[in-house]
Amino acid sequence: MSSSEYDVFLSFRGMDTRTTFTDHLYHSLKRVATVFRDSEGLERGKEMSELFGVIERSEIFIPIFSGNYADSKWCLQEIERIVKVAVEGERRRLILPVFYRTEPTHVRHQTGPFEAPFRKHEEDDKVEEETVKKWREALSIAAGFSGYERKNASYLMDSSRMLHIFKEDITITNTGEGTCMLQRILQNNSVLIVLDDVDQVEQVEALD
User: Fold this and answer.
1) 134: in domain
2) Long-range contacts of range 127-131, CB-CB < 8 Å, 24 or more positions apart?
C-alpha cells in the first residue's frame, strides 16, 4: 500500500450516486485499498478545510461526474483542490474520472447538464467571479484525463486485466508514477468495477 492515509478518494454528488454506483464502487475498492468517501470519513458539519486535508493525504482521485455534480459548490471546491494537489503539487498523483450519465465534453466545456449550474453560480453574488473561473478550469483539467464512461458497459475483471487498462490510461496522461502505486494496491487481488446503469445491489451480486 501507499504511505498516504487513503489510497483512493471518491468525489461524487450524493443525490446522484451515493446509494447506487458510488456505493458499489466504494465497497469493491475496499477489498484491496483504503478508500475515502465523505459520508463516513468526514462528520457532518466539519469545515471544508478538513476535507482538503483528507485530499492532501490521498493518492488516487476518482471524481464521479454525474448530472448534478456542478450544482454542488462543495463538489466544485473538492475538484478544484483535487486538481491542485494532483497536478500542481510537489509530486503528481492520479486522477481517474468516471463520467456517469454525462459526457466528457459536458464536463470539459461545462455544457449539457453542467451549463445551467454555472450560470447560476455566475449570477450568485456570494460567489466571486475568480472562484467560478477556478471551478471551470479544474473541471476542464480533470475531464482531460483518460477515464471511464457509462457507455463502456460493465467490467468484472481480475487485477492483471484491470492494471492493463489502468496502465493504458496512465501512459496517455503521462502519470507513470501512478502505475507503481496501482500495482502495489491491486497486486494479487480481484476488484469489481461497475461502469454501467446498475442501481440495485442484486445486479452487482449476480456478476460474482
Assistant:
1) yes
2) 127/73
According to DSSP, the β-strands at 190-193 and 155-158 are antiparallel
Task: Give yes or no for a contact between 193 and 25, defined as CB atoms under 8 angstroms apart.
Answer: yes
Cell of 52: 482538503
- The CATH number of whichever domain residue 22 belongs to comes to 3.40.50.10140
Q: Is 50 annotated in the active site? A: no
On whether residue 155 sits in a domain, the answer given is: yes
Tally of CA atoms within 13 A in the half-sphere of 16 that contains its CB: 20
pLDDT of residue 150: 59
Catalytic residue among 5, 47, 59, 78: 78
Name which of 62, 24, 48 is nearest 194 in CA terms: 24
Q: Is residue 208 part of a domain?
A: no
What's the pTM? 0.75
* Number of domains making up the chain: 1
Q: What b/e readout covers 164-183, taking b as 16+ CB neighbours within 10 angstroms?
A: eebeebbeebebeebbebbe
**How far apart (Å, rounded) are the C-alpha atoms in residues 203 and 193?**
13
Q: Is residue 105 part of a domain?
A: yes
Range of the structural domain that residue 109 is part of: 6-203
pLDDT one-digit tens code per residue, 96-125? 898 988 999 999 999 999 999 999 999 999
Phi and psi angles of residue 166, each rounded to the nearest 5 degrees, phi first: -60, -40
- Report how far apart the first and last C-alpha atoms of the chain are (Å, whole number): 25
Residues 185 and 188: their CA atoms lie apart, in Å, by 9
